[in-house]
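Data availability (excerpt). All sequences and predicted token strings are deposited with the supplementary files. A representative entry, Coenzyme A biosynthesis bifunctional protein CoaBC, is shown inline so that the format can be inspected without opening the archive.
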Amino acid sequence: MPRERPEVVLGVSGGIAAYKACELLRRFTESGHAVTVVPTAAALHFVGEATWSALSGRPAATEVWESVHQVPHVRIGRRADLVVVAPATADVLARAAHGLAADLLTNTLLTARCPVVYAPAMHTEMWEHPATRENVATLRRRGAVVVEPAVGRLTGADTGKGRLPEPEALFELCRRVLARGPRALEPDLAGRHVVISAGGTREPLDPVRYLGNRSSGKQGYALARTALARGARVTLIAANAALPDPAGAEVVPVGTAEELRQAVTKAASGADAVVMAAAVADFRPAARSGSKIKKREGQEPEPVRLVRNPDILAALSAARGAPGQLVVGFAAETDDVLANGRAKLARKGCDLLVVNRVGEGLAFGTEENEAVILDARGPETVVPRGPKDELADRVWDAVVARWSGAPPR
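Structure token line:
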């Protein structure tokens, strides 16, 4: 039975990004988690013990030799429902991969029997060094979730890959890992590369106006978050989505259907699965005005002639980017939902199709969704209304079942 207040251990290692862990800690405590902070000695040079204790409401655990009668180096790890190390320096990743126990944090990592999330932060050269890459691969093989660093400003004037993802995004990923419970100990998408499209395309009429749709991108971003929590490498093709980047995802921004087609086709080469959750415009204006179309007194506007956009889902299904690649489509319908969905599944040639009813107050822009997952082999899975993260998990369950040959759970 899950505890009323999940026990989280926040390990903090000695990097300049330690200050960001304060915001991550605040998000955990304000959402009802009980947090024990375990900083390394180096981390305390960046953020002091008093800060960690004040923000967590608990004494920070810093030494193996403090309160020895409670055996902290064993007790803290055993009690945890989740251990997250943010930032995780190259040194801590190396010690964790090799099972060293030089301080309280590395002792805790050895005794923890719960899911472990590492959020690396370091200079690009350190992240790309073969030793670090091997250590990361080792930790992932053992079932840990190692988040890909973000690209951006590092210490000083340096810029590159190695930046700690934003605390809000890290918290959302950790929340999904916790929600999976014991299943999170064996990330079932580990070693997989998945490509997800999200949001809605916009087809320009002139420099000011466009044809678009109501899609917010929330369902596609939920698919990205849940895939990351299950260990996948994620490429997210985001069409006009004003949402924070999921921690660890490679995000490729696009605008039009043609831009999305090019980005997805490129990313899908070698991917294990492609999930087309974006709302892609079926049509675009045949011609785009180079200047704003003016309203003229007493004159009706010229009709806008439309032409078809390429059918991205059908093209992906017909020309798989890798042997055994799974293609998942989404069908947003307003009526005859299942009949239209089944017809679309047959027409598009994809493996799975997620069919949902849309309209005012339904699906677009909301925090909840409901759907039926259609399988080209016959099974149908009804997913009742609930958070979009839950529907995303059910979609990945169906994908994993296809890979293993088992029916969806």
